[in-house]
Amino acid sequence: MGQNTPHDTLPKLPPLREKVETIDILRQTNRSTAALAELKGIAMTIPNQSMLVNAIVLQEAKDSSEIENIITTQDELYKALSVHKTNISAETKEVVNYRKAIILGFDLVKKQGFLRVNDIVRIQQELVDNTAGIRSTPGTVLKNDATGEIVYTPPQDKAEILDLLTNFINHFNQQDDLSPLINLAILHYQFESIHPFYDGNGRTGRILNILYLIINGLIDVPIVYLSSYIINNKPEYYRLLNQTNKTGEWEEWVMFMLRAIECTSKDTITKITKIRNQLDSTIIKVQMHESLTGGILSGTQHPSGTKTGRCAGYRIQHCSLYLVWLSFP
After folding, report:
1. 17-276 CATH pick, 1.10.3290.10, 3.90.870.10, 3.30.565.60, 2.160.20.10
2. What is the pTM of this model?
3. How confident is the prediction for the chain on average, in pLDDT?
4. I need a surface site. Which of 102, 223, 242, 275 has the fewest CB within 10 A?
5. 222-257 pLDDT per residue, tens
6. What does residue 218 show for φ and ψ, rounded to 5 degrees?
7. With 0-12 CB in 10 A as exposed, 13-18 as middle and 19+ as buried, what is 307?
8. Gap between the Cα atoms of 253 and 41, Å rounded
9. Prior bond of 14 cis (ω within 30°)
């Protein structure tokens, strides 16, 4: 295949307003915005924000990788993070890399308040652990896993990919009167359609979702992810991506993403409540253990006033994080 390989036409952003601001979309936007605002408020009730972020980022790393058929278990991932081992499985390493990529992206947006194309490349490189970068060799096609049928051919020429990425990042950083949640749906479709890398496009795109919410002040920390919803609705997700590409009609796709935000926000609120209850229970158990052992635990001070130290060879914060993580379904 040469540089002139035929591919599906991908218009630049933005789409026509009337296609992405229908009555149904605007109504769903209100519901999704309310759920996300409630989540943002409840997240602030957790005394240890870093523990909350770690627990949810770990789950997202596992879920998002599972969409790409990278399967690992909670025990494998926990051991990989808490013990310095080199003999972890390739699947577990990919999930650990996803966590690193999320943290890198979060640090970038907190420091800069925006992203550049080069930042996206850095995030993807952290994710896949190579420096291949943006596609420069034509021949990439997306196929139906079951039939082998080519369902989409993304842009092939590197110059065109870079041009589309520049257009994408301009709209990613731009703030106007279009709801950022509607814009998130548009941006996610566009990035997946550009398909700029040889590997890791889906996972990179899902990281960009959370960074976009943070840049726009809809959440403060990376705690709401759509991967679990996508796993549960995977055929519909890919059907609507393909449909939007073929028809140029946006409503069903935007509605899907808005419902994903609402449902995920509500699910995360439930999880945070469980995390808070689990943390309270763990603190009580630590206090009881200290009183029974004469205070042999030593360590730093927990924000609640409880000491953290070592318990049976493990840091209490690691024990707590593991218990928190087990509260996830």
Report:
1. 1.10.3290.10
2. 0.81
3. 81
4. 242
5. 888 888 899 889 999 999 999 999 999 999 999 999
6. -80, -25
7. middle
8. 28
9. yes
